[in-house]
Specification:
heterodimer; A: alpha/beta; globular; B: alpha/beta; 2 domains; 5-stranded parallel beta sheet; 27% helix
Chain lengths: 273, 469
């Protein structure tokens, strides 16, 4: 555990090869009255863009007094194309946007975006972090995905895109037309980043000791309940569960419940006020 | 994060019965830490102490943040064209990167806006007392400190507050070092120190002598080459003038590629000499003296333009000044030149006028503190000096980690006093340690550190502190 908490000071390799800049899409909704709440930065998972949060969550967070921003990782949504992007490039994008918001931000990562957030926490002292249906990577994730969706997962092994199906992402409560519309907007992550999700180095310890909340759905067909518990245990907590929902909690029919839980947690936690 | 309610400020109402040694009342600030200066180093100290749960009072003599990098400040040494010498990745705070669409070597105004954003982002201004200067810092019983302040300029009454710890971040590039020259008083031309050089208009159309080959001296010589009618550049010895870009990348990034591969110093020096030989070439053909040392043995100079203007005849390299006459300057090789303006880019000396010299280990009164890691004084476990380094790279990364180390040390004093005590012993054993290769003996190199060596030493100190030995 001691080794896990070791701060890393010398990063000669990273200093020598700084990440290249890329045009980044950032969507934001700011509350009408500044209430002194910390800003939220939503980080979408692989294939998703800032649009996934712009559908419901940004507006809702702002209506409750939280300035809310979402970015598209490079190669996703409205950001610049980046087929060779790595997890490091994605982490760089998150830290850059986090440092550009006016005040110390809360990072909210969804899916593989949670893995990116975990890396970003070692580079930026977030006020708090929320991991939503986190795909923290490793071969377990791969096995699970292969079992549930062999047709969509196998091509990814050979450098193709990871295809997620409607049934994995959404519950049956979501009208078919909407689900179809969302799925059609999905893009794909860089193939190197996809590989690194399985084989890349573990995230370094967080700086600034932010409180971390993990939430997800036991009926998620991408992240198993066991993976959810493992992720939460890593941050010394238990996951908050929303049964009956799919992987994309921010787009599913009952999107309001998880975001309200996040905002309640932030409003309650003394370190984030 | 602390809420606004526990941000009491030293207030006469809350003064306790404590008195200073000479009988003045003291307001006790409990576990609060005092930070002196709200420049880059002071800001990161406030941020990191706050992040580790400490209350912080920061005193700043100016009315804004940014210290040396705020050109409005009367102690700021920046001039209109000041840009970074080390590229962005080496200069930024490690946990708050500069925007990646900024240039490799940002301008000083961008630096100031970066510090402003840092202060706002982490809500630091509420901890800073602006327009307040520190007059005295005295150790008192229990490793605590009495800090006496007053309004900048000496107006208003003095007030004394007692703190659990003090971080000194008053900077070391504001008190000009002016060498003595025979006959300087009778010289009729204009004389200035580089600290009062602000704008190339000051040079326009004049015959200018620039003394000193630090990065500032070279910058001013280049501007004189562009603006003045004549420019002489006087240097004590030959130097290695490294370009800011080699192999199409910022030179310090290329250098760190080798550090990452752990290439030994000798090999790096050889490669450096070889690269300079290929790109800059032999400088003696321009009349510049041959360097009398290997690269990395003096503070590195990064200036792509100096050699360019020497090659265009716009800069005349000359040796050291021997003495001044009324209308001319005599050089050590016997030549006489007739400048109208002499700019001394001869550097700065550290000054801690609010602190007794012996607190920082300066027993003989030379003005040179004797510290471990350039930050920790023997016998004063609750005192740290932050940013007192002259690295071959950026300072702010170093200040950040120094203040993280100090914050963790202060926390351990409460939770693990045994480890804090071991650290105190380590400080005494390590006083005077150097973190660079052999360097030329000069006040310029008092605080010279190689960023690789120094940061690794900090890493070891942090590891020992956290893990124990």
């Amino acid at each position: 555990m001691r080794e896990a908490e070791r701060l890393r000071i010398v990063r000669a390799r990273e200093w020598a090869r700084p990440e290249r800049p890329a045009r980044r899409e950032v969507l934001g909704v700011v509350p009408e009255v500044e209430e002194g709440r910390p800003p939220l930065l939503f980080v979408p998972g692989f294939g998703h863009g800032a649009w996934a949060f712009a559908e419901h969550w940004l507006e809702h967070a702002a209506s409750r007094g939280f300035p809310a921003y979402a970015l598209s990782l490079r190669g996703h949504g409205g950001s610049a194309p980046a087929p060779e992007a790595t997890l490091r490039s994605y982490t760089h994008d998150v830290v850059q946007v986090a440092a550009s918001v006016p005040r110390q931000a809360v990072l909210v990562g969804h899916g593989a975006g949670a893995r990116v957030v975990a890396h970003a926490l070692a580079r930026y002292p977030a006020r708090a972090a929320v991991l939503v249906a986190p795909v923290l990577g490793g071969w377990g994730t791969f096995g699970n995905s292969l079992r549930r969706n062999p047709g969509g997962t196998l091509p990814a092994v050979f450098g193709g895109g990871l295809r997620l199906s409607r049934r994995q992402l959404f519950s049956r409560e979501l009208p078919d037309a909407e689900a179809r519309r969302y799925v059609s907007r999905l893009g794909r992550a860089g193939r190197r980043a996809q590989w690194q999700l399985l084989t890349g180095p573990d995230p370094e310890p967080a700086v600034g000791r932010p409180p971390v909340l993990v939430l997800g759905s036991p009926d998620d067909r991408v992240v198993s309940p066991a993976a959810l518990t493992r992720a939460a245990r890593r941050y010394a907590s238990a996951p908050l569960l929303f049964p009956g929902m799919g992987h994309d909690l921010m787009l599913d029919a009952r999107w309001r419940e998880p975001i309200d839980a996040i905002l309640d947690w932030l409003a309650k936690d003394p370190t984030t006020r | 994060m602390s809420s606004s309610t526990d941000l009491g400020r030293p207030d006469p109402e809350t003064m306790t019965a404590a008195l200073t040694r000479d009988g003045r009342p003291v307001s006790d600030r409990g576990d609060t830490v005092c930070v002196i200066g709200a420049g880059a180093s002071g800001l990161t100290a406030v941020k990191n102490l706050k992040e580790h749960g400490f209350g912080v009072d920061c005193y700043e003599r100016e009315t804004g943040i940014g210290g040396a990098w705020n050109w409005r400040h009367d102690r700021s040494p920046v001039y209109a064209s000041t840009h970074l010498i080390s590229s962005r990745p080496f200069t930024q705070f490690p946990d708050f990167p500069m925007p990646d669409d900024w240039p490799d070597y940002p301008h000083h105004s961008q630096l100031l806006s970066y510090f402003e954003r840092y202060a706002d982002h982490f809500d630091l201004r509420q901890h800073i007392w602006f327009g307040t200067e520190v007059v005295r810092v005295e150790p008192v019983e229990g490793d605590r400190w009495d800090v006496t302040t007053r309004s900048t300029g000496g107006y208003g009454p003095e007030r004394t507050s007692r703190y659990a710890a003090v971080v000194v971040a008053n900077g070391h590039n504001w008190s000009p070092k002016l060498p003595r020259y025979e006959g300087l008083e009778e010289f009729r031309g204009e004389v200035m120190h580089a600290s009062s050089y602000k704008d190339p208009a000051q040079l326009r159309g004049k015959r200018v002598l620039v003394v000193g080959a630090g990065n500032t001296g070279c910058d001013i010589a280049v501007e004189a080459a562009q603006q003045a009618s004549r420019c002489w550049h006087s240097t004590r010895r030959g130097y290695w003038y490294a370009p800011k870009y080699v192999f199409g990348r910022p030179a310090d990034q290329v250098n760190d590629s080798m550090l990452a591969l752990r290439v030994p110093l000798r090999v790096r020096q050889w490669l450096y000499h070889w690269t300079l030989g290929l790109t800059v070439g032999d400088l003696t053909r321009f009349g510049l003296p041959k360097p009398d040392h290997r690269v990395y043995e003096t503070h590195p100079i990064a200036n792509s333009q100096l050699v360019y203007y020497v090659g265009h005849g716009e800069i005349t390299p000359v040796p050291d000044v021997a003495r001044f006459h009324a209308k001319s300057v005599e050089l050590t090789d016997g030549r006489e030149i007739d400048p109208e303006l002499v700019v001394f880019a001869t550097g700065y000396l550290p000054r801690f006028e609010f602190l007794a010299g012996k607190v920082l280990g300066d027993d003989e009164g030379s003005g040179r503190p004797r510290l471990w890691l350039n930050a920790f004084a023997a016998g004063h476990p609750t005192l740290a000096v932050v940013g007192l380094v002259q690295p071959d790279s950026g300072i702010f990364t170093i200040s950040h980690w120094q203040s993280v180390l100090f914050a963790r040390l202060l926390r351990l004093r409460a939770t693990r006093p045994d480890r804090a005590a071991a650290f105190a012993k380590r400080v005494i054993a390590g006083i005077g340690e150097r973190y660079s290769g052999k360097v030329k003996d000069s006040t310029r190199h008092w605080f010279e550190v190689g960023h690789g060596d120094y940061l690794r030493a900090l890493q070891r100190a942090l590891d020992e502190l956290e893990v124990g030995r």
